[in-house]
Structure formats: C-alpha cells, structure tokens
C-alpha cells in the first residue's frame, strides 16, 4: 500500500471510525530543518513555516497566495510568498484539504475537512465567515475565476454547487455518488471535471454541472486540472499515467513520459501548457512545458507527497508544499519568448540557468530540467558572449 493510499484511508477513518492503523503523522510536530539554499529555479519560503501543507491556491498574477495545512490553519501571503501575514493567519480546526482564490485575489474559500464547514472571505483573507456546512466529508473545492461559482466534493458520496459565493448550495444528482478526491472548473464555471477515487471514474460536464458524462474508468483518479477556457484538461491517478485532453474531455492522450506513479495532485497554467504534477513520497514532482508531452523531474525539492500545488495564469510562478512536512517553495520559470531575433551562436545567462544558441537553434538547459526548445529575444536575456 502506498503512503498516498494510507493518507486517503486516514482521512476516511476520521469520519467512519474504520479500524485502520495510523501510519502517517500529520501533526507537524517535528523539528523544522533549516531551509535549503535556492537551487534549480526553486526558492524555499521559510516565512510560512515548516508545516504539513495540504492545499494552496494563487491569484492570477501569483502575488496573493492562500495555503491550507493539516493542523487546521490557513496562511496568506500578498507578496508571492516572501512574507506571510500573521494577522491574516486563521485556525479553524479540521484539515484544510482544499482552498481557492479568485483571479484578483479578493474572494477566497476553503474546505475544513472533519468539521464540514466551507469558509469564505471577500476581502482577501481579512475577514472569514463559515458560509456553509456541507457535512464532515467535504474534501475538495474549485471556483470560477471571480469566485462566485463553487464546486464542492465529498469523499462520502456527493457533489454540490453554488453560484452565489457559497451562500446557497444544491446537490448534483446526475453525477451520482462517489469518493470525490479532486474537482476542477473553467474560469466561467461552464466546464467541470471531477475525479472519483473509489469509484474509479473521471466525469466531465459542459453545462454548469447539469448533465455529466463518464469519460474514463478503471483507475483511482486523484488529480484534475483545467485550463481557463475548459478545453485543455489533465488528469492523474494513483498508480497510473497522466492523461491530457484538448477537447474538454471528449478524447484523451496518455502521457507515459512522466511514468506510472502514485500521483497525488495536479495544477496548470491558464492555457494548460504548463502542467505541474505531484507524486507520492519519493516519486517526486514533475513539470511539463508542452501540454504534457515531455516532463522534467524536480529532484531538488525532496520527498512528498506533493498535495499542495498552484500556478499563476502564465505558469511563470509555481508554488508547492509537501504533506510530509516542508517549507512552501516557489519556482520562477524562465520566460520563453515568441519571436526569434538572432541566429548568431551565443551564450545567454540569466540567474542560474544557461541558454545556448547554435546553428540557428536555441536550446534552453538547466540542471535537473532537461533540455527544451526555445527562442531568443533581446528583451528577455542579457548577452554575455558570442562567437
């Protein structure tokens, strides 16, 4: 049994008192090591503390971050994770298994697993209210870009939706019962995708959740993510491959290059091109820059399980946290321009990355990230030497 599976069993046991051995400590009661030095594009943000991170979300520009922990607390940053506002930190109890934030960073929502409450804020975390009680099994949450539409899933069988910032909710009958581990929503709330872990189903809706179609089955689906327009989707399962879709889930493409792993979570940029996939324990964290065709493993970060993942709209800023205990880490991606300005062989330097151009082909290379094609603009990089 994988450790990720034991997490799922632990969460179920807290509700149904199943006689299962507790094999993972999520109390965060362990000594915090010093933060690692920046490496391979990643920087630890120790101001948020060394915690068991379960969820994280960010505004469209990546400046406002909300993160939920296993000890029932919410942490908020308004400067991309460099500092965390102690006055905005809240402890509501339970485990914050899912958090959302609107594109402008104002409207926030969070699921308190074990207490059954949906908490909401309309002023960027300054004030919070328990906007709804949806039962102790409420586990996962997604929102539209403005935060008005919410989709909630329970591991005890139901999906529910709200169109007024969580004030009123209705049950989604057409999807049936399931163990809803993850849900995602397009920016306008029209397109929805949901993962049923125990039922081994992947469902989509293209009409605000009125009707549903089973798209894939036979795997314990754990992670889903959607582009802002709802056309580009990615899904993952516990012990399977990652799959992507370019037509709102009607057809799917298997992406074996990342391997068959105990995938725990997914996130993506607003266009779906940048995908971040978190796996169980030592299986690592992976990033794709080409809609899931190729992947690079982020070995510097250490062990997971990587449940807390978020990306800004452009995919240029990524925030991750480990459920096993970690500092939140941020990753600033080197931008890939769209216009070729020169075919002259050159060596270009930016931060810790190196870009080499030869024979009219520019290749971007960085330790631990592999090599991927790119193009060069004079506005994006500083010329160090040329031959």
Please specify the SSE layout and strand pairing.
Layout: H1 3-16, E1 42-45, E2 53-58, E3 65-69, E4 73-77, E5 90-91, E6 95-101, E7 108-113, E8 117-121, E9 129-133, E10 138-143, E11 150-154, E12 159-162, E13 170-171, E14 180-185, E15 192-196, E16 201-205, E17 213-217, E18 221-226, E19 233-240, E20 242-245, E21 253-255, E22 261-268, E23 275-279, E24 285-288, E25 296-297, E26 308-311, E27 317-321, E28 328-332, E29 346-350, E30 353-358, E31 361-366, E32 370-374, E33 382-386
Antiparallel strand pairs: 1-28, 2-3, 3-4, 4-5, 6-7, 7-8, 8-9, 10-11, 11-12, 12-13, 14-15, 15-16, 16-17, 18-19, 19-20, 19-22, 20-21, 22-23, 23-24, 24-25, 26-27, 27-28, 29-30, 29-33, 30-31, 31-32
Task: Give your account of this protein's structure.
Helix content is 4%, strand content 42%. It has one helix spanning 3-16, and strands at residues 42-45, 53-58, 65-69, 73-77, 90-91, 95-101, 108-113, 117-121, 129-133, 138-143, 150-154, 159-162, 170-171, 180-185, 192-196, 201-205, 213-217, 221-226, 233-240, 242-245, 253-255, 261-268, 275-279, 285-288, 296-297, 308-311, 317-321, 328-332, 346-350, 353-358, 361-366, 370-374, 382-386. The strands form seven sheets. Strands 18, 19, 20, 21, 22, 23, 24 and 25 form an eight-stranded antiparallel sheet that branches. It has a five-stranded antiparallel sheet with strand order 32-31-30-29-33, with no helix packed on it. Strands 1-28-27-26 form a four-stranded antiparallel sheet, with no helix packed on it. The longest helix is centred in the N-terminal third of the chain and has 14 residues, at 3-16. The radius of gyration is 20 Å and the shape is globular. Mean pLDDT is 82; it is low at 12-30 and 335-387.
